[in-house]
């Protein structure tokens, strides 16, 4: 928590400063109130008017700085939430391909949305509340010291009792906070699954099932927070009762001191409020500490990533000069069931290769090995004379592009999907469009490159999406293209158009997976590798 507050120290400090000034004004209000009471008792009109003016000025300052504190706190929490998300984004980039895909999208969404909202409610708001309450306690104690030492002693006893009370419940709330996060993440995963399957349920007339599941998941999301809030309110109610009992004791003490002539009559007007400031401050502080305790599991899930440090630049590999060699490589997701065993291949620069064979024979696995995504293999994979175990996947991917059957496009323009936010000249764009056979498609679109593709490319056909992906690979100077059944979902005309654009590009080293190759198409490849399942 301190890590993030330090990153936003200017806003955090300003928010705390406004809170401290506001509670300082609140203590002055009580002291001025006592002076007004004493002046009225003494029938001193001039003093009454003076201290009334002072009291109103303090009230004005209190409301002004409270408003400033609220405004500044809102901006600070926004910055803190964005800082947490930034740390998560950096941690995602530092994950390997395998590590990133060990969690599904629903879990990542939960961490970026629900968990951060919980941090806001359980950590950021309570933290700034704690600063204000501590200021309230300190200023109230200083005011009491100005009146009589016994009032300070009583306020300290009050403080100790109210400070220790939450420790009885702290562990339970931490466990509840942890359980809340786990349950809500699971519910969001179920919600993602339900929304993904919306078309299936609607097509088969299962709208009622969609509603039933949606309402159940909605309750699963809300129920953990409800339980956590209930436990917090139950514990805060008990602490509140203790607080009231202590305030009654303070009233009795001030009445005794007044009757003994140790304090003025005006102390009855403001002294109780000052002791109440200590008691209420510690009462609120106790509840805020419970919230901070419940936030610990959420901070425990955050990565320890220093986003301020400059990330190391990935040294580029030398461009492929001769070939990629796979020598006696074995790999299996399960040690007892190898996918590839002593497999050897050679892919020469600029040539075109096809991988064929039945499902499960390792075609897709081979491409992922070439990309460096699956490092736990035996044998050797060389990029010219460089063993890819000695380089990072990021270095390999500077020269390779990978196109799957289901191409993902961002919900923005075709131009943005091709360039990915980088600046390219019109000549570079034109070359990529021609090389991907996308020119005819763009000519038929009123907005051309500025056509919005829709969510996951829903406004484009399957062939158009494939050609956008190819243009993206070409413009980013990826000279090696790995295509995992990229045309299997297309009609023959579109499949021929896409494959022709790849096979006739002399600058491209192509490795393409296909289940079905016609004799004519097979002849266009420099070599076709037939893979077979590993026999036990």
From TrEMBL:
GO CC terms, sorted: plasma membrane
Transmembrane segments: 51-68, 145-164, 237-262, 268-288
Keyword field: ATP-binding, Membrane, Nucleotide-binding, Transmembrane, Transmembrane helix
Cross-referenced InterPro entries: AAA+_ATPase, ABC1_TM_dom, ABC1_TM_sf, ABC_transporter-like_ATP-bd, ABC_transporter-like_CS, P-loop_NTPase, Type_1_exporter
Annotated PROSITE patterns: ABC_TM1F, ABC_TRANSPORTER_1, ABC_TRANSPORTER_2
Gene3D superfamilies: ABC transporter type 1, transmembrane domain, P-loop containing nucleotide triphosphate hydrolases
Membrane found in the keyword field: yes
Gene Ontology MF annotations: ABC-type transporter activity; ATP binding; ATP hydrolysis activity; ATPase-coupled lipid transmembrane transporter activity
Location in or out of the cell: Cell membrane
Location of the ABC transporter domain: 324-536
Main location: membrane
The ABC transmembrane type-1 domain, residue ranges: 14-294
Membrane topology label: Multi-pass membrane protein
Coiled-coil intervals: none
PANTHER family, sorted: ATP-BINDING CASSETTE SUB-FAMILY B, ATP-BINDING CASSETTE SUB-FAMILY B MEMBER 6
Protein name, as recorded: ATP-binding cassette domain-containing protein
